[in-house]
Amino acid sequence: MNRDILNEYREKDDKILLAQILDKVEAVENKNKIEHTDFLDMSQIELVQKFINKIKITNYMTYGGFEQAERKMYVIYPEKFNTEVVSKNLSNIVNIVRIQLPDDLKGKYSHRDYLGAVIKLGVKREKVGDIIVSQDGADIIVDKDITKFLLENLNSLTRFSKSKITVEQIENLRKVEVKKEELDIIVSSLRLDNVISELARCSRNKALEIINMERVFINFQNETKKTKQIKPGDIVTIRGKGRFYIKELVGQTKSGRTIIKVEKFV
Predict the structure, then answer these.
(1) DSSP class of 158
(2) Which CATH entry fits the domain spanning 94-172: 3.30.70.330, 3.40.50.150, 3.30.470.20, 3.40.50.620?
């Protein structure tokens, strides 16, 4: 496969990631077996998706353990395989490391606490997928290769020394409960910068800064165009601020400003 296409990308990290994608594609062709990447975040997924479209690869799927997962792997498979065959092999790629807290610690830890604990053990972020937090613990979706290490070492951390650590098949993932908080925002127009200013509760200048820093995603695709028009049905993600579903346009104020009903994922 022609690797000259990588010269179109300036960022070193982008080139490294896309070179790894090409390595996976070539390995699939040469070894005739399924290959997968590490877990990718939303901006990496966008980059890889555009690249895959450019090189016209169709024998792939994304997988994060459940449909709404934010962090996903790219699974590349031989063209002779159908998606049903590939789907049956997905459980061989990831596992769940389940942490069950003792009664006196239930409700104490957040997503950040669980992720921080895993990283403290020396695990690379890209080996960890989504973390499903509940009152009594968490399900951590991980690359199967690090499952045994976490099973043997999580109890060495003080915060989890009394917790029960088990490995579960991905089919046994805790039910992902999506909680939403409904709110109304009022904007002068449906331009992205106006909407971000209200959702992030910041000035227009700060909203522009957030957009320019590539922290805004519309329907999981990075968006840096401040004049982009937001519409009902869009999912707006602001890194560091949360995710929002644009539910409906309620109407207008007397001064002509637009009222938008929004659901914030909490």
Answers:
(1) G
(2) 3.30.70.330
* Residue of 168, 43, 163, 49 lying closest to 108 (CA atoms): 163
Q: Which residues pair with 244 in a beta bridge?
A: 236, 264
Whether the model pTM is above 0.85: no
Q: Which residue matches tokens 């539910």? A: 247
- Spans of the chain, pLDDT less than 50: none
**Candidates 3.10.290.10, 3.40.190.10, 3.40.190.150, 3.30.70.20; CATH matching 180-265:** 3.10.290.10
pLDDT at 175: 81
| Burial label, 265 (beta-carbon count in 10 A; 0-12, 13-18, 19+) | middle
Report the distance separating Cα 164 and Cα 166, nearest Å: 7
220: nearest Cα among 72, 76, 22? 72
Residue with tokens 């992030």: 200
Between the CA of residue 81 and those of 35, 52, 60, 76, what are the distances in Å?
A: 13, 18, 10, 10
- CA 59 to CA 28: how far, in whole Å? 10
